[in-house]
Amino acid sequence: MDANPRTVTPLDKSFPEALVGRDIRHLDAALSDFSTPIFVLDADGLEHNIAAMAAWTARRGLELMPHGKTTMAPALWRRQLDAGATGITVATGWQAAVALEAGVGTVQLANMCVDPPLLRRLADLLARHPDQEVVVWADSEAAVDRLADALPAGARLGVLAELGAPGGRTGAREEDEVARIAERVAAAPGLVLRGAAGYEGALGHDRTPEALATVRAYCDRLVAALERVRPLVTGTPWVTAGGSAYFDVVADAFAGVADARTILRSGAYLVHDEGFYRGISPLDASRATGEEAPLRAAMHAYARVVSRPEPGLALLDAGKRDLPFDEGLPVVLGVSGTLGGPERPLRADVTALNDQHAFLRWDAEAAGEPPVEVGDVVRLGLSHPCTAFDKWRLVPIVDADGVVAEAVETFF
Predict the structure, then answer these.
(1) What stretch of H or E contains 50?
(2) Taking the CB of residue 276, how many other CB atoms lie within 10 A of it?
(3) What is the pLDDT of residues 305-337, one digit of tens each?
(4) CB of 203 within 8 A of CB of 220?
(5) Residues 138 and 244 in one domain
(6) Using CA atoms, how far apart are residues 40 and 390, in angstroms rounded to an integer?
(7) Coiled coil located at which positions (predicted)?
(8) Mean pLDDT of 252-281
(9) For residue 387, what are the CA distances in angstroms to 153, 255, 390?
(10) DSSP letters of 309-375?
């Protein structure tokens, strides 16, 4: 994707006109030149988080194939791969094609893909680049049959048999069914059984003892499923799990697995957040211990005060089209008179989002003078990276001096 470098266009939201036509890898612009609302990445935070997760997995003898759907930004995937990630995980056939086109060597499609045109497209890409590999999931014999029927003659596709759990998402509910899936894969032309896979994140939403016990029990079942299918696997078996909430529990379960590739797929660690993952990640600053380097929130947004229609209320120029809101509303980090300028504390809360507005409220009686004026810029902490990047086609990376040296393109 680097053959024709991406340049800034007039249609890139919040980018200054002076940058139109510039290579996004070489911008050298001041953040203050951008418009609001704007979603930004912190250069130091990105570097820190990539190094922290690489060190964490290396100490435990784990591979990392981070979930690329979080950012859908090949430029960020490349940083993760350069730091030791052994592949990139995606969630759809189209995303897998993006990853192959970006030159990713190993692409794990952590989902069912039974769409014939997409499977044929993946097979064609792999035929043109035999050094690349795609490994998909299957949670039923019917899914295996669909995969085999859609592949053209001579194509080869890796498959992981998926174990699920009652109340979870996809995945065979019983280990016996996982074994039958593995047998079907091993017998199917063009399919190569790689091992077992699963996703534990849907089984808990906090770190209570009950949630951790549920996740731990599932991970133990996944390890047992690997042992059931191991005799049918071609090459070194894979066992993979690990979202961004319980990867410590997964690591503990995988610690006793011998002669296998034990693979985490955590992706949100790259930028962490000020909401959901701050409350649940084992590497948040409130939980990291010993030699573990805690993750930092490396994404935030800026929004400008456009109206102050009544006491205790201001409206900002960012809304659901610009900011994530499904796992918590943005939180106020500070306010300044200009974008990227010196900040002062702001005791206020974002209480709701419309399409293009955020409602900023404070205690008018306790505050005395209004804490913000029309034109002020509020810096916002965000929750849930997976629904932050998809609202922006081009995202600036800002250094500690407020300089935007580069931007990354997303493909959603």
Answers:
(1) helix 43-59
(2) 21
(3) 999 999 999 999 999 999 999 999 999 999 999
(4) no
(5) yes
(6) 13
(7) none
(8) 96
(9) 38, 32, 6
(10) EETTEEEES--TTTS--TT---EEEEEESSTT---B----EEEEE-SS-EEEE--HHHH-S-S--TT
| Distance from C-alpha of 203 to C-alpha of 220, rounded to nearest angstrom | 14
Output the domain CATH number for residue 74.
Answer: 3.20.20.10
Q: Which residues pair with 41 in a beta bridge?
A: 299, 397
CA distance 92 to 199: 15
Residues 54 and 23 grouped into a single domain: no
Calpha distance 96→88 (Å, rounded): 9
Bridge partners (DSSP) of residue 161 are 138, 196
Task: Tell me how far apart the alpha carbons of residues 311 and 365 are, in angstroms, rounded to a whole number.
Answer: 9
Structure tokens at 90: 């995606």
Which tokens hold the place of 47?
């570097």
Decide if pLDDT at 289 tops 90.
no
Token reading at 142: 């019917």
| Residue whose structure tokens are 């896979």 | 197
Angstrom distance (rounded) from CA 20 to CA 368: 44
Q: Is 58 helix (H, G, I), strand (E, B) or coil?
A: helix
Cα–Cα dist 83/44, whole Å? 15
15 and 65 share one domain: no
Reference 280, options 202, 208, 207; nearest CA is: 207
Q: Does residue 31 register a pLDDT over 60?
A: yes
Please identify which residue in the block is written with the tokens 């990640």. Answer: 281
Is the pLDDT score of 138 beyond 60? yes
Element (H, E) at 182: helix 175-187
Same domain, 37 and 53: no
Q: Which domain holds residue 340?
A: 7-41+296-409
**Secondary structure (3-state) at 207:** coil
